[in-house]
Design brief:
- The chain has 2 domains: 6-150, no CATH class; 160-244, Alpha-Beta Plaits (2-Layer Sandwich), CATH 3.30.70.60.
- It starts with 10 loop residues before the first helix and ends with a strand.
- 55% of the residues lie in helices and 15% in strands.
- The chain is α+β, with helices and mostly antiparallel strands and 245 residues long.
- It has 9 helices and 6 strands.
């Protein structure tokens, strides 16, 4: 836990020098808090641009609180001989609870807030690492987040767009049109794996469904989902349809 043991120094600490290795050094504290705020601000601004509730302020506060908790725990372990880093543990429990509250299902049965929830917890853990002087660990974590946010979304989009299975949010003009829709979709070469009434519209009398389909026709295997959904949307029984990501 403590950073006062020379054996605990990481590579970046060695490069920065002794001032960065002492948790009670004013400059070391400022440096760790500053890094935590910068990392949190970067991730928070990305979430804010996508109009998520947990944005810039939330991430900065999570980062700052976590790094301060780690600094306090480090001091208590080294100076007061406290054996349990209870502040860091409490922070992880609190952030896990808060991040769980960011998850919600929309009216189209889509789970929202999962990435934001994970990012909040990740920022907390990285900030704890910074507070303990584990700069290398925090830097590696930050680089992984950059890759996840900058590169993986494009890869995920490509994979989802070419997958054999996908989900649809379907709004029929009438519930009586469900059988016609099923027959027409089968003629397209799609197999319906599951179809259920969207719970948000269960008691409204509207024909709104979540449909899981599998491409069976060889002719459709190389067809992008957008074109398949466009064909489904052209059916007389369909009022609106879109893919659920």
């Amino acid at each position: 836990m403590t950073t006062s043991n020379p054996q605990a120094y990481d590579y970046i600490e060695k490069i920065l020098g002794t001032w960065a290795q002492e948790p009670n050094n004013l400059w070391a504290v400022a440096f760790r808090v500053g890094l935590a705020i910068l990392i949190a601000a970067f991730i928070g601004s990305e979430r804010a641009r996508k109009r998520h509730a947990a944005g810039l302020r939330t991430f900065i506060l999570v980062g700052m609180t976590s790094v301060l908790a780690a600094l306090c725990d480090d001091y208590m372990v080294t100076a007061m001989q406290v054996s349990v880093p209870f502040l860091s543990a409490a922070i992880l429990i609190c952030i896990s609870t808060i991040s769980g509250k960011t998850l919600l299902y929309t009216s189209r049965n889509q789970l929202r807030g999962l990435t934001t929830s994970v990012c909040l917890l990740t920022v907390a853990v990285m900030s704890l690492c910074l507070g303990l002087g584990m700069y290398t660990c925090a830097l590696i974590g930050f680089l992984v987040i950059l890759i996840c946010m900058a590169i993986l979304p494009m890869l995920e989009s490509y994979m989802k767009g070419h997958s054999v299975q996908f989900e649809l949010h379907l709004e029929l003009k009438s519930r009586a049109n469900l059988q016609d829709f099923i027959g027409a979709v089968r003629e397209f070469g799609l197999h319906i794996d599951e179809i259920e009434i969207n719970p948000a519209y269960a008691n409204t009398g509207l024909g709104v469904y979540t449909v899981k389909v599998t491409i069976e026709s060889e002719k459709l295997l190389k067809t992008q989902h957008e074109k398949i959904i466009e064909a489904v949307g052209a059916l007389d029984s369909v009022g609106f349809v879109e893919e659920i990501f």
